[in-house]
Structure to design on (94 residues):
C-alpha cells in the first residue's frame, strides 16, 4: 500500500461537476462506497486501486474539459440514466 498521491477532494469536485452520485462514481471506479469514502477522508489507497482511479480520471477529464459532459439537461435526469449515457460515451471512445 502507498500513501494516497491522489487528492480526493479534487476527485470529488470532478464527480460533482460531472453530476455523478457517489454510487455512480464507485461503479465507474469498480470500488465500494466504503473504500471511496475512506479515500475522500484521507485513507490509504492500494496501488492497484489508485491506478484504477487515475485511469478512470484520464477518461473522464477530457469529457469535462471539452464540454461534452454533462450534456444539457443531464443534471435533471435520474442518476441511472446519467451513468448509462456516460458509460455509452466512454465505450464509444474506447
Amino acid at each position: 500500500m502507498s500513501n494516497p498521491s491522489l487528492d480526493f477532494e479534487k476527485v470529488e469536485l470532478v464527480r460533482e461537476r460531472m453530476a455523478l452520485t457517489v454510487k455512480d462514481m464507485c461503479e465507474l471506479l469498480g470500488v465500494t462506497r466504503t473504500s471511496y469514502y475512506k479515500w475522500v477522508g484521507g485513507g490509504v489507497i492500494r496501488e492497484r486501486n489508485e491506478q484504477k482511479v487515475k485511469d478512470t480520471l484520464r477518461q473522464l477529464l477530457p469529457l469535462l474539459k471539452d464540454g461534452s459532459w454533462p450534456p444539457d439537461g443531464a443534471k435533471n435526469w435520474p442518476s441511472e440514466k446519467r451513468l448509462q449515457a456516460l458509460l455509452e460515451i466512454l465505450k464509444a471512445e474506447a
Notes: The CA atoms of residues 12 and 40 lie 8 Å apart. The two ends are 29 Å apart (CA to CA). The first helix runs from residue 8 to 17.
